[in-house]
Amino acid sequence: MFSEPYMVHAFVAGTVIAIVSALVGTFVVARSYNFLTHSLSEIAFAGAAMGFWLGFAPLMGMIALTALSALAIGSLENAKVKSDNVTSAISALAIGLGILFLALGHSSSSSATGILFGSVLGISLSDIYLLLGMAALVMALILFFYRPLSLLAFDEEGLLMSRNKKGLLRIFFLLIMALSVAISSQLVGSLLVFVLVTLPAASARTFQKSFVGLIGMSMFFALFGTWMGLSLAYLTNLPTSVFIALIEVGIYLMSLLMQKMN
Questions:
Q1: pLDDT above 80: residue 175
Q2: Contact 230/11 with Cβ under 8 angstroms?
Q3: Residue 96 contacts by C-beta under 8 Å, 6 or more apart in sequence?
Q4: Which residues of 41-71 are buried (b: 16+ CB within 10 A; e: fewer)?
Q5: How far is 258 from 241, CA to CA, in rounded Å?
Q6: From CA 141, how far away is CA 136, in angstroms rounded?
Q7: What single DSSP character describes residue 159?
Q8: Residue 111: CB atoms within 10 Å
Q9: Which residue from 30, 180, 201, 258 could staple onto 153, CB 3.0 to 4.6 Å apart?
């Protein structure tokens, strides 16, 4: 399997994506931003379609639109507007724009499938360099702002900041989420981003209580699902995202069962 260069590229990219998704996902689950993650994935679809239409890398389109949407959602959330309603409106608009961009760009059905369900087995070396750069940026930001972000996730009342600074921190975290969604879309597609961003962290809560433990267990589940998914995709010639989704959902259901038994 590893004699094939495309599989080496896929495993490198998948490992990077799984680590970043699990790290950000721990904060996402703690803040109950699961619905927002799903909405940002729909916005990522529109961004990738825009990239195809305008002739630049779909990943750059994902980053641009998800970041702009995160800024809009964060600003409106601070303005005493129901955040779920705002998020729903923006994601609905994004789906419509994504379909429009695909039609305007005369994109093939394979391009649309790649956006929706991922195409990591066809990832190039230049794509890996871009992913590594983005992943390094996300991880550096989280490490640098680890304490305020962890307080924002678990103890916002204990965060000794003014209301305006808390609002800026929320927007900053939404931008980190947007980057992680764009990164994760490369592996599982825009429709299944929540599988890697939210499910490993949600499963980890059954087994770990400390925040560092949650991050570690979340990364373990994300890496296990990714590596197994890539291996099964190679053996069966079926889409990687199918196996990753099945494995992560299976782990999550097992964690729920263990919660009931305890």
A1: yes
A2: yes
A3: none
A4: bbbbbbbbbbbbbeeeebbbbbbbbbbebbe
A5: 26
A6: 9
A7: -
A8: 17
A9: 30
Distance CA 196, CA 221 (A): 9
Are 195 and 99 a contacting pair, CB within 8 Å? no
8 Å CB contact between 57 and 51: yes
Q: State the CB neighbour count (10 A cutoff) for residue 98.
A: 27
**How would you write 191-250 as a 3-class SS string?**
HHHHHHHCHHHHHHCCCCCCHHHHHHHHHHHHHHHHHHHHHHHHHHCCCHHHHHHHHHHH
pLDDT single digits (tens) 129-149:
878 888 888 888 888 888 888
Longest dimension (CA), the chain: 55
Residue 93 is encoded by which pair of tokens?
Answer: 């608009």
Total length of the chain: 262
Burial of 215 (0-12, 13-18, 19+ CB in 10 A): buried
Chain Cα centroid distance, residue 244: 14
From the list 197, 231, 178, the residue with the least C-alpha distance to 19 is 197
pLDDT 10s digits, 46-57: 888 888 788 777
Q: Are 220 and 51 in contact (CB under 8 A)?
A: no
